[in-house]
Amino acid sequence: MPSNEDEKNPTSRDEGGRWDMTFNDVAFVDAVAVLPVASTQNVADEVGCSYDLAYRRLKTLENEGRVKSETVRGSFVWLPVDN
Q1: DSSP state, 65?
Q2: What is the pLDDT of residues 19-34, one digit of tens each?
Q3: Which residues contact 7 (CB under 8 A, 6 or more apart)?
Q4: C-alpha distances in angstroms, 83 versus 9, 53, 63, 66?
Q5: Is residue 12 assigned to a domain?
Q6: What are phi and psi of 72, to 5 degrees?
Q7: Alpha-carbon gap, residue 10 to 26, rounded angstroms
Q8: How many Cα neighbours within 13 Å face the side chain of 34?
Q9: Which pLDDT score is estimated for 2?
């Protein structure tokens, strides 16, 4: 039975045998919802990806209206969108 981590970030090997890590949008949205301070770095740490990937993915999710952001002292803080 897969762990919670496997459900959030399934892994597989590509044709060359290298690991290919896929991060689901839900993992980012959930991280924003559960973290007390959802900075880009905190979200990256929670999801298990790089800062750059987290920032790009969160900006895409913001453009889709799934999260929103505020700038606090020069850093992005991500917030859930009220439904």
Answers
A1: T
A2: 555 789 999 999 999 9
A3: none
A4: 25, 26, 16, 9
A5: no
A6: -125, 115
A7: 12
A8: 10
A9: 40
The number of domains in the chain is 1
pLDDT at 21: 59
Residue 30: which of 63, 56, 64, 5 has the closest Cα? 5
Burial pattern 47-63, b for ≥16 Cβ within 10 A else e, equals bebeeeebbebbeebbe
Phi, psi angles (nearest 5°) of residue 64: -85, -5
Dig out the tokens for 21 from the structure.
Answer: 């890590």
Write down how long the chain is. Answer: 83
**Which structural domain, as residue segments, surrounds residue 39?**
19-80
Residue 44 belongs to a domain: yes
- Flag whether 6 is in a domain: no
Ranges under pLDDT 70 in the chain? 1-21, 83
Name the pTM for this structure: 0.75
